[in-house]
Design a protein that fits this description.
Distance between the termini: 53 Å
Radius of gyration: 22 Å
Strand content: 15-25%
Shape: elongated
Number of helices: 10
């Protein structure tokens, strides 16, 4: 059987695809994928980080022999420090690989220096191929490196006119089955789901991945006591109660646990408070093709009285899921504050 032959760009794209498989499994570390090819581009092995060995080591251990001139493509610069595992640069140097291509430089100060060590060992190093896509897939960890806190994504399900509930408070279900399945997949790719006691009391949600992957930690904020009969009190996933409305307590927990990304699944009061605190990096909006006219708006009062004070987001992706629309928005670099 003829082996698959990839260009440098295609090999890196495959490494980035591999990295994506580790979403939700690697905190406090980044998601990383690696692909090893022969000098002519034949794929020899691949691997991705999922909480144990790093992607490079998995790919190296998956091939019986490293032919002369082999190349390893990695979505992130190989690490140069001893954490839970030895430095990946050591494994690469000892493998006989003669060329390393990586997409994104490692911003973690304790892990840098790998490129210099590789070059000192006579290994050719190239960077930047696939950088934009690799940054996109690793945006949660990169946000944590930049801001010192996890990336915070708010999921909203609303009507086309921006309502999350009817005037009588009913809201199940605004979006369809496929949209709710997409949300379950999102849960499997984050480290924690954050909600409020008000949402738990109103909806009694389970907040699991529904079998699509691991269940993230469920974090409930608020001072109201919850019944032990609530679904979130069950053992389907770990639940942490923060008896506070102070987001600093949430950020402290996230730092202690090393979370890369938190998914907010709450009503508009909690989400609006996060927006006012400048703590929302990303919004994933599911919109159903339906109108209510009156009802509960998806976002409350932000204290903005002039158009110049608006909060700007950039559309990253638009997708039709069943009968619904999924719009992914990133906080604009032009926003007045960078976040905390």
């Amino acid at each position: 059987m003829m082996k698959q032959v990839l260009s440098a760009e295609a090999a890196m794209a495959r490494a980035i695809d591999c990295a994506r498989l580790g979403l939700g499994k690697t905190f406090p570390n980044p998601v990383v994928g690696a692909v090893i090819t022969s000098a002519t581009g034949e794929v020899l092995s691949e691997g991705f980080h999922q909480g144990g060995d790093h992607a490079e080591v998995i790919a190296l251990n998956s091939v019986k022999e490293i032919p002369a001139g082999s190349i390893i493509y990695i979505s992130l610069e190989p690490c140069n420090h001893h954490g839970k595992t030895p430095p990946c640069v050591d494994a690469i140097i000892n493998s006989g690989i003669k060329k390393v291509v990586y997409a994104v430089s490692d911003p973690n100060p304790i892990a840098t220096g790998g490129v210099e060590r590789l070059r000192a060992a006579g290994i050719e190093v190239e960077s930047g191929i696939g950088e934009e896509q690799a940054r996109l897939e690793n945006r949660a960890w990169l946000t944590k490196m930049e801001l010192g806190r996890p990336r915070i994504t708010w999921k909203i399900a609303s009507t086309m006119d921006g309502k999350v509930a009817a005037s009588d408070g009913t809201s199940k279900w605004i979006t369809g089955d496929l949209a709710r399945t997409a949300v379950a997949r999102m849960r499997s790719q984050v480290d924690g789901i954050v909600t409020s006691t008000a949402t738990v009391i109103a909806d009694d949600p389970l907040l699991t991945s529904k079998g699509f992957g691991k269940n993230p930690v469920r974090i409930v904020m608020g001072e109201t006591e919850l019944s032990a009969k609530m679904q979130i009190s069950g053992d389907a996933a770990e639940t942490v109660l923060i008896k506070s409305r102070n987001f600093d307590d949430l950020l402290s927990l996230a730092e202690e646990r090393g979370f890369n990304e938190l998914l907010i699944e709450s009503g508009p009061t909690f989400g609006t408070a996060l927006l006012r605190a400048n703590l929302v990096d990303e919004i994933v909006l599911f919109q159903a093709p339906t109108l209510l006219g009156s009802g509960t708006p998806s976002i409350g009062d932000l204290g903005i009285t002039n158009i110049s004070g608006r909060l700007d987001f950039e559309i990253s992706d638009v997708e039709v899921i069943g009968s619904d629309l999924k719009v992914t928005l990133f906080k604009s670099a032009n926003s007045t504050e960078s976040g905390r």
